[in-house]
Design brief:
The chain is of the alpha/beta class and 221 residues long. It is 48% helix and 15% strand. The strands form 2 sheets. It has a 5-stranded parallel β-sheet. A hairpin with a 2-residue loop joins β3 and β4. α2 crosses α4. The two termini are 21 Å apart. It binds cytidine-5'-diphosphate.
Length: 221
């Protein structure tokens, strides 16, 4: 792995646990870069659909990912220089991401791209396997979670806030389905790294969660 001396904070956890928001605020507070690894899987699902590739076809999905020109600029995601930040945030692409993410050849195809985000002065990486597979030497590993009901409510509000269609019951069912797929897959399943701190956020504000991560990072150094 390159740049081993550059600190990484790995924040993993299930869908809608608040990882993205917490990770971005921690990155801002420290002046670190931010990797939204879930966005990569969402872009792959989006590109596969555009190219009529079945999300279940492991080899074709990995081949498609190898050809992608993905860029992150000012919190926006570009595919072949087109801003697709909004298109990848739909529940359909969340579902697609979790379906393509089961494929080992695809996960392997995205490893270098993720390692390249490790740049000075540091990186906050958010996903499912940041602490277990992609950055096993991360300086701090956090597993952020909340009950399914809390997460469904957060996702519901988040979608409404963006003016996107949202149905609470469907979101709850999708979350359960996605949790099962993320935990049950053979390749890089969602699990708590042995050396991770567990942060249950049902009764924590975002500020509390961010401060807890920052406190743990400072005291690790
Ligand atoms: O926002 P949400 O947590 O629902 O999803 P996301 O973080 O954007 O990730 C979408 C999907 O990509 C997840 O359901 C996972 O199946 C997959 N994923 C993964 O397998 N590994 C990662 N490091 C990040 C996401």
């Amino acid at each position: 792995m390159n740049n081993r001396n550059i600190p990484v904070i790995a924040i993993d956890g299930p869908s809608a646990s608040g990882k993205g928001t917490v990770a971005q605020l921690v990155a801002e507070a420290l002046g670190f870069g931010y990797l939204d690894s879930g966005a990569l899987y969402r872009v792959v699902a989006f590109a596969a659909k555009q190219n009529n590739i079945d999300w279940g076809d492991a080899e074709a999905v990995a081949a498609c990912a190898n050809k992608l020109n993905i860029q992150f600029k000012n919190s926006q995601v570009y595919l072949n220089n087109t801003d697709i930040s909004e298109e990848i945030r739909t529940e359909e692409m969340g579902k697609g991401a979790s379906q393509v993410a089961v494929h080992a050849p695809l996960r392997a195809a995205l490893v270098n791209l993720q390692h390249n985000f490790r740049q000075a002065p540091g990186l906050v990486a958010d996903g499912r396997d940041m602490g277990t597979v992609i950055f096993p030497d991360a300086e701090l590993k956090v597993f952020l979670t909340a009950s399914t009901d809390t997460r469904a409510e957060r996702r519901y509000k988040q979608l409404l806030g963006k003016g996107l269609p949202a149905n609470y019951e469907n979101i709850l069912l999708d979350l359960r389905e996605r949790d099962a797929r993320d935990k049950g897959r053979a390749s890089a399943p969602l699990l708590i790294a042995k050396d991770a701190i567990l942060l249950e956020t049902d009764n924590l504000t975002i500020t509390d969660a961010v401060n807890t991560v920052l406190f743990n990072f400072k005291h690790k150094k």
